[in-house]
């Protein structure tokens, strides 16, 4: 059902309880985060056999590891014996296997049960059947995406389609060669706000003139409320005299090798539902991964990615990092200011979207459909 039309200019948002109700958040965990593809970890972070990282996906904790033959594998982070958490650290490296710290059940990096106290006296135990529970995994843009669903949705029709839908060309995102880029900086933000407030904020620029002075200096279109997510194939153009996507407009680095002339001096933003933002500029890529942990808490991990030679040279990337770091801080502070009001009687019926924000209603329709609801 389309968003409620209040007037030709205004349509209704979701009511406030969608941002504060633990039961709504539980439904989102089950129907969205545990059912759709979820961007878990940067592949290059697991750069050798035995490297692992644990991530929270909905209500499940997942361990992603690299096998001895070089593939990435994902498993539920649960020992099959008595249910203890297998990997208790957020990241680390093991030599050859994953061992439960409770009773020492031990698993190969491919998930097979390979050892346990007195296991030799239990010849009837099927070491594959009692191996770790596998989680579907795909790699794209240099990241490992996982899906907990028994029958995952099409990766091409959901995740990859978001880039086509926004850029209007299946090959356009490939020009940035994201999977070949190197990590120049990572910043983790612990945001005291519902994940949907962060998505909605990213999808509109009605707020840009108010809280993003540095960004609107580089991208003057944003000062007029230009909706970065809305116009297919259109990237916001750098302002006159702006030399690079940096905090002071100074030059950045050379254009990435396959970025086209049409993509030069432009910024493109892509939302990959439910929890990923991709920001494309000529000389680097900024990728946000959200980890919703509660109805009022979201951890956001933001990576700045550059050509490998830029990072290897020790080049100073601080001016380009600082631009979007400031944007992040400004946005997340706005979301944190908004979160308390979601529980106010003033927001029981929700708020309104002005024309520059009407496309957020499409996100609301998607959300309600995912929750099995026809209206808010």
From TrEMBL:
<dbReference type="InterPro" id="IPR015879">
    <property type="entry name" value="Ring_hydroxy_dOase_asu_C_dom"/>
</dbReference>
<dbReference type="InterPro" id="IPR036922">
    <property type="entry name" value="Rieske_2Fe-2S_sf"/>
</dbReference>
<keyword id="KW-0560">Oxidoreductase</keyword>
<dbReference type="Pfam" id="PF00355">
    <property type="entry name" value="Rieske"/>
</dbReference>
<keyword id="KW-0411">Iron-sulfur</keyword>
<keyword id="KW-0001">2Fe-2S</keyword>
<dbReference type="GO" id="GO:0051537">
    <property type="term" value="F:2 iron, 2 sulfur cluster binding"/>
</dbReference>
<dbReference type="InterPro" id="IPR017941">
    <property type="entry name" value="Rieske_2Fe-2S"/>
</dbReference>
<keyword id="KW-0408">Iron</keyword>
<keyword id="KW-0479">Metal-binding</keyword>
<dbReference type="GO" id="GO:0004497">
    <property type="term" value="F:monooxygenase activity"/>
</dbReference>
<protein>
    <submittedName>
        <fullName>Rieske 2Fe-2S family protein</fullName>
    </submittedName>
</protein>
<dbReference type="Pfam" id="PF00848">
    <property type="entry name" value="Ring_hydroxyl_A"/>
</dbReference>
<feature type="domain" description="Rieske">
    <location>
        <begin position="37"/>
        <end position="146"/>
    </location>
</feature>
<dbReference type="GO" id="GO:0005506">
    <property type="term" value="F:iron ion binding"/>
</dbReference>
<dbReference type="InterPro" id="IPR001663">
    <property type="entry name" value="Rng_hydr_dOase-A"/>
</dbReference>
<dbReference type="GO" id="GO:0016705">
    <property type="term" value="F:oxidoreductase activity, acting on paired donors, with incorporation or reduction of molecular oxygen"/>
</dbReference>
């Amino acid at each position: 059902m389309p968003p409620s039309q209040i007037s030709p200019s205004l349509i209704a948002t979701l009511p406030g309880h969608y941002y504060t109700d633990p039961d709504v958040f539980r439904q989102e965990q089950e129907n969205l985060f545990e059912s759709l593809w979820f961007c878990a970890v940067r592949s290059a972070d697991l750069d050798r056999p035995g490297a692992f990282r644990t991530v929270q996906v909905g209500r499940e904790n997942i361990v992603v590891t690299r096998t001895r033959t070089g593939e990435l594998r994902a498993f539920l982070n649960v020992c099959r014996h008595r249910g203890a958490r297998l990997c208790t650290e957020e990241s680390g490296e093991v030599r050859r296997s994953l061992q439960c710290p409770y009773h020492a059940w031990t698993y190969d990096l491919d998930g097979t049960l390979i050892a346990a106290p007195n296991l030799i006296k239990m010849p009837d135990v099927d070491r594959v059947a009692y191996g770790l529970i596998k989680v579907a995994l795909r790699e794209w843009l240099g990241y490992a995406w996982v899906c907990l669903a028994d029958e995952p949705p099409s990766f091409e029709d959901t995740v990859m389609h978001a880039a086509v839908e926004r850029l209007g060309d299946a090959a356009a995102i490939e020009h940035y060669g994201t999977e070949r880029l190197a990590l120049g900086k990572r910043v983790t933000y612990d945001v005291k706000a519902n994940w949907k407030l962060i998505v909605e904020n990213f999808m509109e620029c009605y707020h840009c003139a108010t809280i993003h002075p540095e960004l609107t200096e580089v991208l003057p279109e944003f000062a007029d409320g230009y909706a970065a997510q809305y116009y297919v194939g259109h990237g916001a153009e750098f302002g006159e005299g702006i030399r690079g996507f940096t905090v002071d407009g100074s030059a950045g680095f050379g254009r990435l090798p396959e970025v086209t002339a049409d993509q030069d001096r432009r910024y493109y933003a892509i939302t990959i539902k439910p929890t990923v933002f991709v920001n494309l500029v000529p000389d680097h890529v900024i990728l946000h991964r959200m980890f919703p942990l509660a109805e009022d808490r979201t951890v956001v991990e933001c990576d700045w990615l550059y050509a490998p030679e830029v990072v290897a040279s020790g080049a100073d990337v601080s001016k380009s990092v600082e631009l979007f770091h400031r944007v992040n801080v400004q946005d997340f502070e706005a979301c944190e200011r908004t979160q308390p009001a979601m529980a106010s009687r003033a927001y029981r019926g929700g708020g309104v979207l002005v024309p520059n924000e009407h496309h957020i209603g499409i996100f609301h329709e998607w959300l309600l459909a995912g929750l099995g609801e026809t209206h808010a």
